[in-house]
Amino acid sequence: MPDFGGYPEAHALPFTDEVRRKTDHLYPKIARFIPEIEWRVHAPYIAAINDLKREKNAVILAHNYMTPEIFNCVGDFSGDSLQLAKEAAKTDADVIVQAGVHFMAETSKILCPEKTVLIPDMRAGCSLAASITGADVRLLKQKYPGAPVVTYVNTTADVKAETDICCTSSNAVEVVEHAAKEWGSDTVIFLPDQYLARNVAAATDVKIITWAGACEVHERFTAEDIREIREGNPGVIVLAHPECPPDVIAEADFAGSTSGLSNYVKENQPQNVVLLTECSMSDNVAAENPDVHFMRPCNLCPHMKRITLPKILRALQTMEHKVEIDPDVIARARAAIERMIALPLKRQSMYNHTRAPEVAAVESRV
Ligand code: SF4
């Protein structure tokens, strides 16, 4: 049952004939994941949200880790952080509702400062974004003068403002190589995910200094998990996100960003597959690939799961919570994101290891 986002459960909206008329066409896509009895709770919210979006000229950007009823039934654009950032930059809507976590809403605000950007729950954070501050980055720059700073988009606006160029897991290797060349340095400061940093280091000759941050969802997977899955399921294809530790990536058949994993399934149509990433991702990719069997040893992101239909509806009704960022921070952070978006990258980063994933240093706050 959905989280009622602060409303008492008794205030759940009624499932009327009008709601049925407005939402019946949406149910078949998610019927495999949401039983009909639960759909009757979601559908009134979906109808109300879609009506309000039209009324307020709003769009909803839905990250791949959103639950199926959000991802498929109210999201106007969906994808990984990079895809959502690009959609935010292009949209002519007046209001953006970020169905994702706070750093994603900040990224939308940075790219569209004139628009109203709403996050349905201010507590939707991220262990990576929380691991580092702008002050930490300034100290690192003093310690490693001349080394460009490449920052994963899973960071706050303050951190992006101290950054030379941003990256996502879909382009991290290419961005690191570009930064080394552009800034004339054999070393790059890559923040804040130590595992993504190691996975990038295994795919490039550039020396990497990183930070002791980690995604609390992906760091929990182990190589032993994969060996057990394979033992019990011969022939299963294992796909992993590069925020997983390097020994997990080494055991997987393929590693890539959420869009990379989704494309792999679409193009290869494996018979039996497991996605080592956030749980809702499997549901959303499964909805697009009905002939593929998905095993579900996954981990939930508690921050992503704070975003629910009732909270999205409330955000549109009350125009809260607005994301506000200092204009100077916006200008500097925007330059780092736009440098990434402007790069003519031709392919997704490849992470399958051909050598040891070693970084030159892992820094942390002292
Ligand atoms: S899955 Fe990991 S990186 Fe993504 S929001 Fe959750 S904690 Fe952050």
Describe the protein.
The chain has helices at 17-23, 27-30, 36-56, 68-73, 81-90, 102-111, 134-143, 157-161, 172-182, 194-201, 223-232, 246-251, 258-268, 279-288, 309-318, 327-342, and strands at residues 58-63, 77-79, 95-99, 116-118, 149-152, 165-167, 187-191, 207-211, 237-240, 254-255, 272-276, 293-295, 361-363. The chain is of the alpha/beta class and 366 residues long. The chain has 3 domains: 9-125 and 303-318, Rossmann fold; 129-216 and 325-363, Rossmann fold; 218-295, 3-Layer(aba) Sandwich (Rossmann fold). The chain is globular and about 65 Å long. The mean pLDDT is 93. The structure holds iron/sulfur cluster (SF4). Residues 101, 126-128, 154, 215-217, 278, 301, 303-304 line the site of iron/sulfur cluster (SF4).
Brief rundown of the structure:
The chain is of the alpha/beta class and 366 residues long. Helices cover 42% and strands 14% of the residues. The protein folds into 3 domains: 9-125 and 303-318, Rossmann fold, CATH 3.40.50; 129-216 and 325-363, 3-Layer(aba) Sandwich (Rossmann fold); 218-295, NadA-like (Rossmann fold, 3-Layer(aba) Sandwich), CATH 3.40.50.
Write the layout of secondary structure elements.
Blueprint: H1 17-23, H2 27-30, H3 36-56, E1 58-63, H4 68-73, E2 77-79, H5 81-90, E3 95-99, H6 102-111, E4 116-118, H7 134-143, E5 149-152, H8 157-161, E6 165-167, H9 172-182, E7 187-191, H10 194-201, E8 207-211, H11 223-232, E9 237-240, H12 246-251, E10 254-255, H13 258-268, E11 272-276, H14 279-288, E12 293-295, H15 309-318, H16 327-342, E13 361-363
Parallel strand pairs: 1-2, 1-3, 3-4, 5-6, 5-7, 7-8, 8-13, 9-10, 9-11, 11-12
The chain binds iron/sulfur cluster.
